[in-house]
Amino acid sequence: MTTDVLSRRSTVRMHQINFINLVSFILERITMFTYDKPFLDKGAMFKKLRYEKNLIINNEDFADEVIRKLSYYDLVNGSKEVFIDKCPDGKEIFKPNTTIEDLYNFYIINDEFQNIIVRRLFMVETLFKNELAYILAREFGVDTKDYLDKMKYRKSIKTKRQKIKVADILGKIYKNIRKMGYPTKHYLAKHNHIPPWILLKNVEFHAAIQLYEALNNTEKDYVSERLISSSVKDKAGIIKNMLTISRLYRNEIVHNYKFLTYKDHVNVSVTGISTIVPSEMLVPKSNGKDVYTVILCILILLDSDRLRLSFINDIVTFTEQANLYNESLKSIYATYFDLLDLPNDFVNKIHWYRNYLVNKNASTDETIIQANKNSKIYHLPGGKYYGKIHKDNILIFKSEIEATEAGYRKSKR
Fold first, then answer.
1. DSSP label at 144?
2. CA nearest 29: which of 37, 18, 39, 21?
3. Where are the alpha helices (DSSP H) in 255-345?
């Protein structure tokens, strides 16, 4: 056998050995790799929670049900500010005497309160879109080619970061029409046009707010007046900020983000509402972006005492639940209110406002209210135009709530 053949064999053998060593090294590294969030069965998870995380679990059946139904991540991440301590080495453990029942109770409290808020935020969105659609139809027309005509709007709107062309906003709405679901899809197939009160149901809240911003002053004032009957400086600007913060908090809740600490990330502040809400409801030095501000925005934008009273009653019921439980659960409620930065006298404020609404409307429940069908304005006895409405245009209501619910606003004279 020649020297060249032996040399080539030796080289091949060396490469084979190197390849085997490389594969062994790779397999060894794969075997050694450990995920920091591995799958754990029930036994392993309970062991970790008890001995590594310091959580008290007395009833494993209850703990298993809660973790499976609500998820461990939501239970823990949603209450870290309350029940978690951070060790010097960076490790997170539960505070002494924290139980799985504590996590569950906090989750339920948070979930109930969020549901009260988000239900009304969706209502605010619907009421806003209804009023916007009314003005678009009345002033521009009922066909998309009319009420989405860029010539009827401003050329651009400004945000903190950029200037947005209104043509781009309208173009995006146009582009999405054929992708929209019910009822726009139905109108697209069965009718010869899509009126604004239908289209806006499928337009994103953000886009609807931009459409409102893009209106010229006359049309914007019409919408603003229908949304808030109170006289206030820069009404349109205040409304835009109230709608924006309502949208942001609604999205935060719906997408299951961190509702408790969201106030630290909100990029809009609501100011100027001190002349719209009763002084008893105001809070000194409010940052205009916390949950209490959102509650005030909802009360303003609902613009109906009946809807406001329903909202307030839900909050009152929620706060009164704390008195039905033991001291431990009462403490969790108190901690929850503190985390939301609610006023120290929040419960008193809510009770005061409920009594205010009840007494306010009790005084006019038996009053005959005259409304003008054309102007959509109602008049109380003693008002300048009370008794002066033409018989063909007059409409009678028994209360201000009934008139407001029917879409009428109170006369300023």
1. H
2. 21
3. 291-302, 305-320, 327-339
- Per-residue pLDDT tens over the stretch 297-332: 999 999 888 899 889 989 988 988 877 777 878 888
Find the length of the chain: 413
Q: Which of 378, 409, 405 is nearest to 393 (CA)?
A: 378
Cβ atoms within 10 Å of 108's Cβ, excluding its own: 12
Per-residue confidence (pLDDT) for residue 360, from 0 to 100? 74
Closest CA to 262 of 94, 110, 53: 110
Would you give the distance in Å from CA 255 to the centre of its chain? 9
- Picking from 344, 333, 345, the residue whose alpha carbon sits closest to that of residue 113 is 333
User: Taking residues 119-143, what's their average pLDDT?
Assistant: 97
Between 148 and 90, residue with greater pLDDT: 148
Closest by Cα among 220, 228, 224, 267 to 244: 267
Q: How far is the C-alpha of 94 from the C-alpha of 339, rounded, in Å?
A: 18
pLDDT tens-digit series, residues 370-399: 888 888 888 887 677 777 777 667 777 777
Residues whose CB is less than 8 angstroms from the CB of residue 323 and which lie 6 or more positions away in sequence, other chains included = 330
Cα 323 to its chain centre, rounded Å, is: 28
CA distances from 192 to 116, 135, 143, 186, 301 (A): 39, 21, 9, 11, 33
Closest of 72, 411, 384 to residue 397, by C-alpha: 411
Instruction: Work out the mean pLDDT of the chain and round it to a whole number.
Output: 86
Q: What is the pLDDT of residue 27?
A: 65
**Between the CA of residue 372 and those of 24, 205, 222, 235, 393, what are the distances in Å?**
88, 32, 17, 25, 6
CA–CA distance, 80 with 346 (Å, rounded to integer): 24
